[in-house]
Each structure stands twice: as structure tokens, then as C-alpha cells.
Specification:
single chain; alpha+beta; 7 strands; about 50% strand
């Protein structure tokens, strides 16, 4: 296996109501960072045949709220390949959103998707 800049993985996840911690059914930012970690793990497996270790984030920007009932699309992309370290760009977008004002199970597709979190981090592989 050879790590190459541009390799990308995409995960989608429904945000359950059990993860809402704040008024307005808001979900804490740590929820999305956990999803970024999952995507980074798959990225490392695909690029290096190992789960790797997350070394840290260089930047994290919360640009829009994440709410219970959202469907998130999380993308992790290799943007730097060193001998043992890998730079990873992350983005989380809301692709579907609950609309409880229309009914208890009402929802819509977000067109265009709403960028909720962007980040950059470093992973290390053996």
C-alpha cells in the first residue's frame, strides 16, 4: 500500500436525538470530531494498512450548527504524505435536516449541503 495525496473517504451518519445536549436540539462539537476520527481511521487503513494514531488538530472551525435529526456527510482527504505522518483535511456537511415544525418525522434534503465543520489534522502510521 502506498499513501497518496488525494485519497479520500466519505462517511454518512444520522445524528440521533440522544446526542442533543443543548437547546434547539444542538449537538456538541465533540460529536463531529469523533466522526472525523472514524473517517481518519478508515483513511489510514486504506492508505497504509494500519489504523494509525491521531496526533492532533492544526485547526477546527465550527461554521454551522449540528442538530439532532441531521444526516452528516464527513469527508477525510489526505493532503500531505510524510515518511510516517499524514496531513488530513476534514469536512462535515449537513445533507439532510429534520423539520420538527412540519411534523415529528418531517425532514428535508439540504440543497446545497450546509458546511458545519472544517478541520485539519495529523495522523501517524508505523
Amino acid at each position: 500500500m502506498t499513501a497518496e495525496v488525494g485519497l479520500q473517504v466519505v462517511h454518512r451518519r444520522y445524528v440521533p436525538h440522544s446526542h442533543a445536549h443543548y437547546g434547539g436540539s444542538l449537538v456538541d462539537g465533540a460529536y463531529v470530531l469523533g466522526l472525523f476520527g472514524d473517517a481518519a481511521t478508515e483513511l489510514c487503513i486504506r492508505s497504509d494498512g494500519d489504523e494509525g494514531l491521531f496526533a492532533g488538530y492544526d485547526s477546527v472551525e465550527f461554521t454551522a450548527p449540528v442538530q439532532a435529526g441531521d444526516v452528516l456527510e464527513v469527508t477525510a482527504s489526505l493532503d500531505r504524505v510524510g515518511r510516517r505522518s499524514r496531513g488530513v483535511a476534514f469536512e462535515a456537511t449537513v445533507v439532510c435536516r429534520a423539520e420538527p415544525n412540519r411534523g415529528p418525522s418531517a425532514a428535508k434534503v439540504c440543497d446545497p449541503p450546509v458546511v458545519a465543520v472544517v478541520a485539519h489534522g495529523t495522523v501517524v502510521v508505523p
